[in-house]
Amino acid sequence: MILRYSKLDFCERLANHPASRMPEKCCVKKKLTLEEERELDIKIGFMEGVVRRDPGYVEALQILGDDYTRRGRYVAGLKVDEQLSQLRPGDPLVQYNLACSYSLTGNFNQAIAALEKALALGYRDFKWLAQDPDLNELRLHPLYKNIRAKVRRLQSKKD
After folding, report:
1. What is the CATH number of the domain that holds 80?
2. Do residues 80 and 61 make contact, with C-beta atoms less than 8 angstroms apart?
3. What is the pTM of this model?
4. Which domain holds residue 70?
């Protein structure tokens, strides 16, 4: 079965994609079936084509990075998030996703630096930060205590 995506399908996917609202990734999901894997691979191929034609298309990059992560292609997702961080250096959600990608690839020092930048830029979803499965390994890292302390300080300022 060949799936084809029209421009309308693509626009609808962009409009409904979580990246437009909250682009956090979450790698710990139910295992994909073979059919879901094939469909995701087709979507990835389509988005790669879109990004090849327009490397600055932020929303397409966000979708592609999210799809790479869902597929378990963490290094490819990291490359996309690094590209997004160049395009949107002041976006706290982009920095947060970059931290997630660094964590998923075992680059914990860089993940901490990206999380600190995300917090400095205004990232404030502390509940998600505390439970995001993409950061599970990072939470075990000794430097993560600095993030916890910073979050407590930010929360106390809010109260």
Report:
1. 1.25.40.10
2. yes
3. 0.81
4. 8-158
